[in-house]
């Protein structure tokens, strides 16, 4: 028994709505872990990069997504290039229109910068979720469909809403601690195959100790 070929764009050649996005052409400042997939029934999942908005290489912010994440269609990542200066009377970006207005072009240091956007491993992001700049989503988290995530999400928690708020922890604190130590997503393929039943059942969770 072998798992899907992690080097193929489409893990199932007859299904073109799901792809392993780590196998898309590389893009600067985007890092995506193995087996993380994007599912889109409306347009080709190869268009995943279109969902990363306002991402300008000169700003240097990164989008980092871990392994074994499930990303539904319509998920958007808003990056730091969307930010406007906020310390003045107005937030209007005069400089981008020229005509002499460029004299108030801000330096990179003057623009709000919230850092890299980081999604951990084994994260499930529901349909039409928006993740704002600099947000950190912990391992094993679930983001409900149609949510807007504006603050960090702790590991193995469920968040939802606009703005997304904590709903509940998936497991007890003790189980979460054990899962974060387990880091099953770093196992080799053979070990994952040997432990599929444990990874996908309540029985397996009960064996953690």
TrEMBL record:
A family per Pfam: Hexapep
Tagged with keyword Acyltransferase: yes
GO biological process, one term: response to antibiotic
Transmembrane domains' residue ranges: none
Highest rank taxon of the organism: Bacteria
Any GO MF annotation of the entry: acyltransferase activity
Protein name (database record): Acetyltransferase
Organism placement in taxonomy: Bacteria, Bacillati, Bacillota, Clostridia, Eubacteriales
